[in-house]
UniProtKB/TrEMBL annotation:
Belongs to the group II decarboxylase family. Sphingosine-1-phosphate lyase subfamily. This is Aspartate aminotransferase family protein. PANTHER family: PTHR42735, SPHINGOSINE-1-PHOSPHATE LYASE 1. It comes from the Bacteria. InterPro entries: GrpII_AminoAcid_Decarb, PyrdxlP-dep_de-COase, PyrdxlP-dep_Trfase, PyrdxlP-dep_Trfase_major, PyrdxlP-dep_Trfase_small. It holds the Pfam family Pyridoxal_deC. The lineage of its organism: Bacteria, Bacillati, Actinomycetota, Actinomycetes, Propionibacteriales. GO terms for molecular function: aromatic-L-amino-acid decarboxylase activity; pyridoxal phosphate binding; transaminase activity. The modification N6-(pyridoxal phosphate)lysine is found at K229. Keywords: Aminotransferase, Lyase, Pyridoxal phosphate, Transferase. The keyword Transferase applies.
Length: 469
């Protein structure tokens, strides 16, 4: 293929992807609305695409840019010069490394970490990968971590606890956990406390009246913040910060007992492109602290306007008052969340439905970026129309027998043939029997929502397995 043919083919394949700019995709992507930031990021990404962060002595420019980003983070996170940091590929890798580091530092049998049950799923992934028991504690008022309940669990587990974690803010509800109170507990017991600020870490520093959450809180031992979220850099850059070098040291991996080079890694990756790091450095240098302050002001103004607008729409309500830029809306029985998300997509807006959890019903998750702020009025108009249409359409109706099966299945007893049948019943296969993503996800999500978490997980793994064959 010629270069022209290749670019045309790429453009054609993108036609059905969600838009990454314009502020109409309210999950997965973050848009500053600054064309010059996008351009300088593209140029830096291209300039450093072939460099390799595996060996900092071979590419010292990458090492210097990493140091600059960590230094900028220190300046906004109330961090002393003792705070050290590492650039990772994303929030999940930052969290994985925080858990691995805590586990390796403690070296105890049956290690455990204590977290509120609203903690990001990346902690469950870390528990799965590293053999650390994930002990979740139900949250208290306003969906914030219940410090007293977590303290009781910490004391019951005793020396098995290698890490305690909290959110700033939590993804599912958009509220900041009581970090200072939790830090008092962990500090007294000599425990590590990780703050997952992957979303809030580049917003809270410029948020008036924000609660204490960062290294200003004595007892916070590590913190994760994603630059590819509200620093508005291209995907693939997060920071993991530790309060001092001694706390970070178990994060590093070295191996010399083989015939090749001595492997030395600061992250889970060995080879890693310097492109995302260079792009992040370029964007942060371009925007700067004052620029981010302005972007946060726009984002928070848009968030307030959206929250107020939702409260004025019949059948909708706010689940919690947002602390940063995440708005979570609930519906009454007249509106099906999954139908509503489909209807919003029909109007050019991607919103994210969240499945029921325990006794809490499904909700609608909205991530606001600076580029969304100016379009909040347009979004609310579309939302009112979609709510009215959803009320007229009524809730998704699931066959009672299928609903009962979804709620009572034991995934451990199902084989591939049974999973194939379930995928077909869920509407995830086409006429030829091949797995495909349906045009409308509402009926599928409504069915999956009835299933307990373990069945959901098994069904989605089966779907992904077949989708990628």
């Amino acid at each position: 293929m010629s270069p022209e043919q290749i670019l045309a083919e790429l453009a054609a394949r993108r036609e059905h992807d969600l838009p990454t700019h314009g502020g109409r995709t309210l999950a997965y992507v973050y848009d500053s609305g600054l064309a010059e930031a996008d351009e300088v990021a593209r140029q830096a990404l291209s300039m450093y695409a072939s460099s390799n962060g595996l060996d900092p002595t071979a590419f010292p420019s990458l090492l210097s840019m990493e140091a600059d980003l960590v230094g900028f983070a220190r300046s906004i996170l109330h961090a002393s010069d003792e705070v050290v940091g590492t650039v990772t590929s994303g929030g999940t890798e930052s969290i994985l490394l925080a858990v691995q580091t805590a586990r390796d530092a403690a070296r105890v049998e049956r290690p455990a970490m204590v977290v509120p049950d609203t903690i990001h799923a990346a902690f469950a992934k870390a528990a799965h990968y590293f053999g650390v028991e994930l002990v979740t504690v139900p949250v208290g008022a306003e969906h914030r971590a219940d410090v007293a309940a977590m303290t009781e669990v910490i004391d019951r587990l005793g020396d098995r606890v290698v890490l305690v974690a909290a959110s700033a803010p939590s993804y599912a509800h958009g509220v900041v956990d009581p970090i200072a109170q939790l830090a008092a507990v962990t500090r007294e017991r000599g425990l590590r406390l990780h703050v997952d600020a992957c979303i809030g870490g580049w917003i809270l520093p410029w948020t008036p009246g924000a609660p204490a959450w960062d290294f200003a809180v004595e007892g916070v031992t590590s913190l994760s913040v994603d630059l590819h979220k509200y620093a508005y850099t291209p995907k693939g850059v997060s920071l993991l910060l530790h309060a001092d070098a001694g706390l970070r040291r178990p994060q590093f991996f070295a191996h010399a007992d083989w015939p090749g080079y001595t492997m030395l890694n600061s992250t889970m990756q060995s080879t890693k492109s310097g492109g995302p790091l260079a792009a992040a450095w370029a964007v942060v240098r371009l925007i700067g602290a004052d620029g981010y302050r302005g972007l946060v002001e726009r984002t928070l103004a848009g968030t307030r306007a959206l929250a107020e607008g939702i409260e004025q729409i019949e059948h909708l309500h706010l689940v919690e008052r947002p602390d940063t830029s995440l708005v979570v809306a609930g519906t009454d029985d007249a509106v099906d969340v999954f139908t509503l998300s489909d209807l919003m997509l029909d109007r050019g807006w991607f919103v994210q439905p969240q499945m029921r959890f325990g006794d809490e019903p499904a909700t609608l998750h909205l991530t606001i970026s600076a580029a969304t702020a100016d379009s909040v009025g347009e979004f609310l108009t579309a939302l009112r129309e979609a709510v009215a249409e959803a009320v007229a359409a009524g809730p998704v109706r699931i066959d009672p027998a299928l609903a009962e099966a979804a709620a009572t299945l034991d995934p451990a007893t199902l084989d591939d043939a049974a999973f194939d049948a379930l995928l077909a019943l869920a509407g995830l296969t086409g006429g030829d029997g091949a797995v495909a993503v349906p045009e409308r996800l509402g009926p599928v999500n409504a069915l999956v929502d009835l299933a307990p978490p373990r069945v959901r997980e098994a069904l989605m793994i089966a779907f992904l397995d077949r989708l990628t064959r």
